[in-house]
């Protein structure tokens, strides 16, 4: 039996590898109707007939999860978290069971498992649980019996209460990568409606280029900065356990994009990997707070206790003993943050609190930034020439992010991508 304790074990050990095993994950658009499910079944059978051992993780069909969420809120203004998880976890079970039926009709053996049956053990946090352990005995047994294994993504079972839990946004990606780590798969392939990872959203930048390879670090920054290709949590698990990832299209043939360890050769070329954008955040400014030690700590500690995620932070220079703290947070967290901010404002004697939902974040990402000075300046020049004002700047060793007006973000993405088109082309050309 393979058991991985995700909070304790730093990496999958070599003897846990399962040669010939591939984990294949299919998103909601890939299994949107029964015809698409049948095509997925054929792809899984083709992989098995080619000699691979196959474990598949299927999301719910199309908008099924959205419909279940709508039903929950029709009957309850605040659905009970446990029952909410019981409800929304059913979508993945449906798609996996149907796909298993289609595989049987193609003459192959298949078995579908719920998250708990597959051994996905989580903490007790409903709607946003984290995987803490994978007990893969039933999967190993099914693979030894030459069966194609299908696992309902996005869900598990609490180690403390034994209740069904769901993993939140990107949960099926996380399930697939966790299974690949626990089973020692050769690779984890993420099938979606795009042929790979691009240098920008091709719907905004028609000249965006598909990348053959990106590093874990680049993909982490891209996911955190708005790229919707893969969930951030899944990339974190993949990096921790050395899982080789590939993003590819469900609907067309192609090599897709590999995600893996850093390549020193790529770094020496000082190449940009992409431009991402995110319109899901809001900006908050607490104006006129006392400029003394401990104020920022109190503000962000109180927000952290309520589970509010903070992204970019700027504290302005003190004037007459008062400062201003500006930060961004998900728009979905604003209702949680507002009463805390009002209380903090009164307690700290702030002159006012400003809320601004009409912002967007644009980010330039590339491992080559580490050894290539002037990237940030070039990005700022491109935005200035496009007449776009920058409100907040944040950086890491491989990322520069700017907050701009939401109605300017598409123009900003195009302008920055145009400026760095040559770097992107060099990356693709290798």
Q: In words, what does this structure look like?
A:
The chain has helices at 34-49, 64-75, 81-88, 90-105, 137-144, 171-183, 216-224, 232-241, 264-268, 295-305, 334-348, 375-385, 409-419, 421-429, and strands spanning 3-5, 21-26, 53-58, 110-113, 120-122, 131-135, 148-152, 155-158, 164-166, 187-192, 197-198, 210-211, 213-215, 245-249, 257-260, 274-278, 281-290, 313-315, 322-330, 352-356, 359-365, 392-396, 399-405. By secondary structure, the protein is an alpha/beta fold. It has 2 domains: 3-193, Carbamate kinase, CATH 3.40.1160; 264-430, VC0802-like. The strands form 5 sheets. An 8-stranded mixed sheet has the order 4-7-3-2-10-14-15-13, sandwiched between helices. Strands 1-6-5-8-9 form a 5-stranded mixed sheet. It has a 4-stranded antiparallel sheet with strand order 16-21-23-22, with helices on both faces. Helix 6 (171-183) packs parallel to helix 8, helix 10 packs antiparallel against helix 11 and helix 12 (375-385) packs across helix 13 (409-419). It is globular, with a radius of gyration of 23 Å. The two termini are 42 Å apart. Mean pLDDT is 90; it is low at 7-15 and 264-268.
Main beta-sheet strand count, sense and barrel state: 8 strands, mixed
Q: What count of structural domains?
A: 2
Structure class:
alpha/beta
CATH topology tier name of the largest domain? Carbamate kinase
Question: Going across the major beta sheet, what is the strand order?
Answer: 4-7-3-2-10-14-15-13
**Cα end-to-end separation:** 42 Å
Binned strand content: 25-35%
What is the helical fraction, as a range of percent? Answer: 25-40%
Stretches where pLDDT is under 50 for at least 5 consecutive residues are 7-15, 264-268
Report the principal-axis shape.
globular
- How many β-strands, per DSSP? 23
CATH architecture of the largest domain: 3-Layer(aba) Sandwich
- Quaternary organization: single chain
């Amino acid at each position: 039996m393979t058991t991985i304790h995700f909070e304790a074990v730093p990496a999958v050990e070599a003897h846990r590898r399962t040669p010939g095993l591939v984990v294949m994950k299919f998103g909601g658009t890939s299994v949107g109707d029964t015809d698409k499910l049948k095509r997925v079944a054929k792809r899984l059978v083709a992989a098995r007939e080619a000699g691979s051992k196959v474990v598949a993780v299927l999301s719910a069909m199309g908008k099924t999860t959205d419909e279940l969420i709508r039903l929950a809120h029709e009957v309850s203004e605040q659905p009970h978290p446990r029952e909410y998880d019981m409800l929304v976890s059913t979508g993945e079970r449906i798609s996996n069971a149907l796909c298993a039926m289609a595989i049987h009709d193609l003459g192959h053996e298949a078995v579908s498992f719920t998250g708990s049956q597959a051994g996905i053990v989580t903490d007790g946090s409903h709607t946003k649980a984290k995987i803490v352990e994978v007990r893969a005995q039933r999967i190993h047994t099914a693979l030894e019996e030459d069966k194609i294994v299908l696992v309902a993504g996005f869900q598990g079972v609490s180690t403390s209460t034994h209740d069904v839990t769901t993993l939140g946004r990107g949960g099926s990606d996380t399930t697939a990568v966790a299974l690949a780590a626990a089973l020692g798969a050769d690779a984890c392939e993420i099938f979606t409606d795009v042929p790979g990872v691009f240098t920008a959203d091709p719907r905004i930048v028609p000249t965006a280029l598909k990348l053959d390879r990106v590093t874990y670090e680049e993909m982490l920054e891209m996911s955190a900065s708005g790229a919707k290709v893969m969930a951030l949590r899944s990339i974190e698990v993949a990096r921790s356990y050395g899982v080789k990832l590939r993003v590819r299209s469900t609907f067309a043939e192609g090599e897709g994009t590999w995600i893996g360890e850093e390549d020193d050769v790529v770094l020496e070329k000082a190449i940009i990997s992409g431009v991402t954008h995110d319109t899901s955040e809001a900006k908050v400014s607490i104006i006129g707070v006392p400029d003394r030690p401990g104020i920022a700590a109190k503000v962000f500690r109180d927000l952290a206790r309520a589970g509010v995620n903070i992204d970019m932070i700027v504290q302005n220079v003190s004037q007459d003993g008062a400062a201003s703290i500006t930060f961004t947070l998900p728009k979905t967290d604003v209702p949680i943050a507002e009463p805390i901010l009002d209380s903090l404002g009164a307690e700290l004697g702030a002159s006012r609190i400003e809320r601004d939902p009409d912002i967007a974040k644009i980010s330039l990402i590339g491992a080559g930034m580490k050894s290539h000075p002037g990237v940030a300046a070039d990005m700022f020049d491109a935005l200035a020439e496009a007449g776009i004002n920058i409100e907040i700047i944040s950086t890491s060793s491989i990322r520069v992010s700017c907050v701009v007006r939401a109605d300017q973000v598409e123009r900003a993405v195009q302008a920055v991508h145009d400026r760095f088109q040559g770097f992107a082309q060099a990356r693709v050309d290798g």
